[in-house]
């Protein structure tokens, strides 16, 4: 089989968006479902045609997402047998034919074995947040990272600023981690939990002749810089 082109693409806000962010004056197609089986996110028709064209060609389309396995299973990508790879959990999990890449799993496990326990970190974070009087939902996701959601007024700029300052001061004391930000959601992630490292791993393993990266968030830039070409939707954060 000839070497293939590899197209690494973020999913949410790059290819699909939630109801709140979707302009339904345009023709849309369901891209994912929520836990209750209800329509959750949507493609615009042109985006869906573009992605389907890539997948049907001799291009290895690779969803590269923060979603965990359960959330990824609710997207239209999971059951598409033409999609061979997927990068999930910010790069913590790689699938091949919807099965875990054992070699990458061993690398990630070794990194976690020398990392400060997430249980300890979340306890420290809870105390830190409490001092700043913030109403946040904080939990560990699949033993990979700490998720933080702002429960307050979603459009309150002052509260978001306060959250960012709180998390930034926490990271100074916990330099094994970094902050992920997306609207009202945040994450405290180990430094090695990064889409770019998973992308580098797959590029080295498969030796493609050309690579493309697509994303919408400044956090996607790291993995996009690993590729030969970069694509971003209009009005994104990059």
Describe this structure in words.
- The relative contact order is 0.16.
- Helix content is 32%, strand content 28%.
- The chain is globular, with a radius of gyration of 18 Å.
- The chain is α+β, with helices and mostly antiparallel strands.
- The strands form four sheets. The protein has a four-stranded parallel beta sheet, with helices on one face. It has a four-stranded antiparallel beta sheet with strand order 9-10-12-11, with helices on one face. A three-stranded antiparallel beta sheet has the order 2-4-3.
- It folds into two domains: 5-92 and 193-231, Rossmann fold; 113-190, Hypothetical Protein, Haloacid Dehalogenase-like Hydrolase, Chain: A, domain 2 (2-Layer Sandwich), CATH 3.30.1240.
- It has seven helices and 14 strands.
- The chain starts with a strand and ends in a 7-residue tail after the last strand.
- It has helices at residues 45-56, 69-73, 102-113, 118-131, 157-173, 195-206, 221-224, and strands at 5-9, 17-18, 28-33, 39-44, 59-63, 85-88, 93-96, 99-100, 136-141, 145-150, 177-182, 185-190, 210-214, 229-231.
């Amino acid at each position: 089989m000839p070497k293939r082109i590899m197209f690494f693409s973020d999913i949410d806000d790059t290819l699909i968006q939630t109801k709140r962010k979707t302009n339904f004056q345009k023709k849309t197609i369901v891209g994912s479902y929520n836990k209750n089986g209800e329509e959750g996110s949507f493609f615009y028709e042109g985006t869906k045609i573009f992605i389907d064209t890539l997948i049907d060609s001799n291009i290895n389309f690779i969803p590269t997402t923060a979603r965990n396995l359960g959330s990824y299973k609710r997207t239209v990508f999971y059951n598409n047998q033409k999609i061979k790879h997927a990068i999930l959990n910010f790069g913590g999990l790689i699938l091949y034919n919807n099965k875990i890449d054992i070699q990458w799993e061993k690398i990630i496990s070794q990194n976690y074995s020398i990392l400060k326990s997430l249980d300890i970190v979340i306890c420290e974070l809870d105390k830190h947040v409490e001092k700043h009087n913030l109403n946040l939902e904080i939990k560990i996701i699949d033993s990979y990272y700490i998720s933080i959601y702002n429960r307050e007024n979603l459009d309150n700029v002052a509260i978001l600023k306060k959250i960012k300052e709180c998390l930034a001061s926490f990271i100074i004391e916990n330099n094994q981690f970094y902050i992920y930000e997306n609207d009202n959601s945040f994450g405290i992630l180990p430094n090695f939990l990064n889409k770019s490292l998973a992308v580098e791993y797959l590029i080295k393993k498969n030796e493609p002749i050309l690579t493309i990266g697509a994303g919408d968030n400044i956090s996607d830039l790291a993995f996009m810089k690993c590729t030969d070409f970069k694509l971003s939707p209009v009005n994104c954060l990059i």
